[in-house]
């Protein structure tokens, strides 16, 4: 049973007063520059929930676990709940992945649409194994981030553009392209009750060009639903998420898979929310659960005003080197 971690100056402690947080979660409160006190009172700041699960090949059991966390998020007052990559299932091999996949109009997404309506909150479904329009021709799927509104309607879909084909010693090879097609484009940030959300998935976080493009297109929140491994997780997970937050001056929300999915695969966990200053403001540990964070868009705008890095960018220079690595 995890205890809560609270490290906050006095003026921030009111953010969390009266919230009942599940004991499986860890809450890390904000630490900001002294001159940047909260610009909004807590009841004006939207609350988001970040769900951490251990998906298996059992789709209905996975839905049951995710639905329990989403209902808890709604009970606690969240307006938007984030689920990780592969929230629907994690299969043992590419053949099982293809067999278990569904189209967007299939049964599983219908269940999540009903869940969103029942709970009255938005859902970020961070990585759905989608049989797309070209399934019959390619026999491959898309890793699709689906955003549902509180009526259960699909308001945005983003298909993962950077596929994870890597070999990390000690972690085992990953060949996402064996079963998955890369998405063709980025999607514009979407206005939600928590702010404008830019959609990405897991391995995308290693490409800062993507996060900068979303920020320049108006994103206030970047989300990286993920299933990080046991070697890259401790080394890179928090570092990359904090870097993406600092360089874009956005909130970063990262729902993660955790624990052992089956005999062939395990994930790192440590779902978190990072504020635009680069501070981890909410986090989970290793096991299933959720964490909560307030999104203070007034603070975000204040920070961008004091540190106007996007006004100082030199895009006329960045594409001119042209030398291969």
TrEMBL record:
Signal peptide: none
Tagged with keyword Hydrolase: yes
Cross-referenced Gene3D superfamilies: Carbon-nitrogen hydrolase
Keywords: Hydrolase
UniProt-listed SUPFAM superfamilies: Carbon-nitrogen hydrolase
InterPro entries per the UniProt record, alphabetical: C-N_Hydrolase, C-N_Hydrolase_sf, Nit1/2_C-N_Hydrolase, UPF0012_CS
PROSITE patterns: CN_HYDROLASE, UPF0012
UniProt similarity note: Belongs to the carbon-nitrogen hydrolase superfamily. NIT1/NIT2 family.
Protein name: Deaminated glutathione amidase
Species name: Phyllostomus discolor
Annotated gene: NIT1
